[in-house]
Amino acid sequence: MKFKLTSLEKKWVLYDVGNSAFTMMVSTIFPIYFNYLAGNAGISDVDYLAYWGYATSVCTLLVALLGPTLGAVADTKNFKKIIFSIAMGVGVFGCILLGFLSSWIWFLGVFVIAKTGYSASLVFYDAMLTDVTEPERMDTVSSHGYAWGYIGSCIPFVACLGIVLGAEPLGISMQTSMILAFIITALWWLCSSLPLLKSYRQKYFSEPEGHVVRDSFKRLGHTFVELTKEKHIFVFLLAFFFYIDGVYTVIDMATAYGQALGLDSTGLLLALLVTQIVAFPSVLIFSRVIKKVNPEKIITVCIAAYFCIAVYAYWLDTQFDFWLLAILVGMFQGTIQALSRSYFAKIIPAEKSGEFFGIYDICGKGASVIGTALVSFLSQMTGSINIGVSALSVMFLIGLVLFRYSAKLNAGVKKV
Predict the structure, then answer these.
(1) Alpha carbon of 57 to those of 61, 62, 108, 376, 381: distances in Å?
(2) Which homologous superfamily is 7-199+213-415 in?
């Protein structure tokens, strides 16, 4: 029987379509434009990659610090949509502002603010999964979110790419083309968010008893205590911390990596577009496979595949190598993100989804502080960008071992 999304599930998926356009820009055009600004300021390729990595690390660190606290507040009745809207608004406004900046340092500063808003919005968006669907539908709904997000982001990206690469034939400056590209991305993101904002209702929540923020901190403290007792959740988060670290680092630094290797900008952008296109059917195929195969097995395959991809990066030095890497990443990127999200949503208390997804985000996007910093540090210390990126293989290996252990623990909890 063909799987059909409900109206609310479709609107939840649509937000993935909108915010993925920003992700696509961050992974492609943003670092290329920053390279352009940094080059005008006389900054070397190695330092350019390092500064971009450090800025990304600051973003993820901020969300790691804010996520659990705001998540706890969001679990209070009628607060989740409000905080989600604020975070999304900060990201959208920051995205527009980036196009008007010509200083590399100011660009990095506003980038940190915009990406922090974007990442914070995802904490609450992921937590909404428990409100918009049922546990038995979560794997498929989550997969549809990532799948349509990947293919949907290609629409504004192609428009932005045409404007940026065609700036000279169009008779406009690089600055003007970037302003248009950032505005298109921001408006796409905003418009895709409105249906969810209109229809979403918080199904699971905590009733406010006194001071909302103070009570939220108390609940958060109880959640951390509870987490230490729920070993299957704790070990999963630890595993997730390591393997998703590499995934997000690859997403955040792919174009910067290719640029620093001196590869052709147009080829890099087209390769990453192919990643989105490959990811779309790959996620949907895996979402069908999961009906017959245990999700733990599919996540295991994805982690192992990323380990091989990271090892392969050590020898990457041609445009063909980068294209092959882009295709391989596209095959597994969306699936590992989608199934990790739905897997976690099913093992946590629904009424504490905001708090738990805030912690999840520490172990997710917050973890890439280590990945981006590791790549940046080793690249500068060794003078080799390939060594820095291939070091991510260690993170995937540790994540794989821990995930298999968490799967055994979770199987034991189900039996009980």
Answers:
(1) 6, 9, 12, 10, 18
(2) MFS general substrate transporter like domains (1.20.1250.20)
pTM: 0.76
- Of 135, 139, 152, nearest to 191 by C-alpha is 152
Output the CA–CA distances (angstroms, integers) from residue 278 to 9, 114, 145, in the order listed.
23, 27, 15
Q: 3-class SS at 133?
A: coil
User: Are residues 390 and 314 in contact, defined by beta-carbon separation less than 8 angstroms?
Assistant: yes
**Bigger pLDDT: 119 vs 298:** 298
Q: Using alpha carbons only, give the angle 231, 142, 125 rounded to the nearest 5 degrees.
A: 80
For residues 85 and 87, what is the distance between their CA atoms, to the nearest angstrom? 6
115-141 confidence digits (pLDDT tens) = 989 988 988 898 888 889 988 889 889
Closest CA to 192 of 281, 273, 88, 334: 88
Pairwise CA distance, residues 358 & 67, whole Å: 4
pLDDT confidence of residue 96: 93
Using alpha carbons, list the distances in angstroms from residue 128 to 73, 124, 277, 353.
Answer: 14, 6, 26, 8
